[in-house]
């Protein structure tokens, strides 16, 4: 019919076009948000610290002797030493800046070690409080922890980096 202003096929085409535009904009927004999260300074710092934890410590195993913190037994054996976890926990509880200085980080750091056998978790550093933090990034790493008696148990290391 000649002179018909709104035809059925034009309405359907406009609806499909609007749905495509909304779909593309939502996809772009989700990708942009994901990339912004991946490139944040806190996320980069968290990945750096989580990787540094599985190197051997630099210095003697005392609060003042450890220059750079790492939990691995050696460069060849990347299992984690339970003694270093205990030392780091006691040093960080005695001095609130100890962990931050040993990891050379501008951010505050909290590490929680959750053992898979149900043993009570070990905490290193101060746990972030929601009211006092502006940005918190968490990363989980798995490792085998060697005990004093030579036995090994599995654990998750939750590394929190926050301001």
Q: Keywords, please?
A:
163 residues; alpha+beta; 5-stranded mixed β-sheet; two-stranded antiparallel sheet
SS field, number of helical segments: 4
Beta fraction: 25-35%
Low-confidence stretches: none
Q: How does the overall form come out from the CA principal axes?
A: elongated
What is the total domain count? 2
Percentage of residues assigned to helices: 25-40%
The SSE string, one letter per element, is HHEEEHHEEEE
Q: Let me know the largest β-sheet.
A: 5 strands, mixed
Side-by-side strand order of the widest sheet: 3-6-7-4-5
Q: Any idea what the radius of gyration is?
A: 25 Å
The average pLDDT value, as a whole number, equals 89
Distance between the termini: 68 Å
Number of strands: 7
Q: How would you classify the helix and strand content by structural class? A: alpha+beta
Structural description of this entry:
With 163 residues, the protein is α+β, with helices and mostly antiparallel strands. It folds into 2 domains: 9-39; 41-162, no CATH class. It is built from 4 helices and 7 strands. The N and C termini lie far apart (68 Å). The model has no long low-confidence stretch (mean pLDDT 89).
């Amino acid at each position: 019919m000649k002179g018909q202003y709104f035809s059925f096929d034009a309405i359907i085409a406009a609806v499909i076009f609007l749905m495509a535009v909304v779909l593309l904009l939502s996809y772009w927004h989700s990708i942009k948000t994901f990339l912004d999260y991946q490139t944040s300074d806190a996320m980069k710092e968290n990945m750096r610290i989580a990787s540094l934890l599985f190197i051997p410590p630099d210095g003697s195993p005392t609060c003042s002797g450890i220059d750079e913190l790492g939990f691995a037994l050696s460069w060849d054996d990347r299992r984690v030493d339970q003694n270093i976890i205990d030392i780091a926990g006691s040093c960080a509880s005695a001095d609130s800046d100890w962990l931050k200085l040993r990891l050379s980080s501008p951010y505050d750091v909290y590490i929680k070690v959750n053992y898979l056998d149900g043993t009570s978790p070990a905490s290193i550093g101060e746990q972030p409080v929601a009211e006092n933090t502006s940005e918190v990034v968490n990363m989980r790493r798995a490792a085998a922890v060697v005990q004093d008696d030579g036995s090994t148990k599995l654990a998750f290391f939750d590394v929190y980096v926050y301001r």
